[in-house]
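tool_call: predict_structure(chain=1)
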Amino acid sequence: MRRVNSVLAMLIAALFFVHAALGGFQLMGVLPKNTLMKVISEIMMTLIAGHVLISIKLTADTVIALKRSGAGYFRENKLFWIRRISGFALMFFIISHLNIFGKDNGSPARLQPFGAPELISQILLALTLALHIISNIKPLMLSLGLKSFKELAIDAMLIAAVILLFAGAGFLVYFIRWA
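tool_result:
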């Protein structure tokens, strides 16, 4: 089950980067709204739902094992809880993202009003996503059988940083266009 969850996480990450790049172009007004973005988003949401369900099951199994052992070791398991809490928080920001960008108001240039609260929620989405990815990269690489993951992780983070910088610029351009 952990292996399936890892594969789902990798697929989500790949689709996220495509989504972020296309979204950046769309927010800057370079690309019109298109069905490819909608299809990618729907596939990604389906994969996220699977990832969430498996993660809930694995977390429940862990909590049950901790209770049976009689020793929770909360302080020693902080990273475990950071991973779970950041994933849970991410759900709130994904719902916010869907609320902001998932609605079609018929306008090709602007999706819907985008003010400071929307910008803040999307910045928090990016920060929460970064925390979730960074805290989970090592177990993900291990579960995929990659023993020497330091160089691969650094390359992946560089690619992610460039794409996220571009998507962030798209949000900023979009915000300025609404101001």
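agent: The chain has a mean pLDDT of 85. Proceeding to next step.
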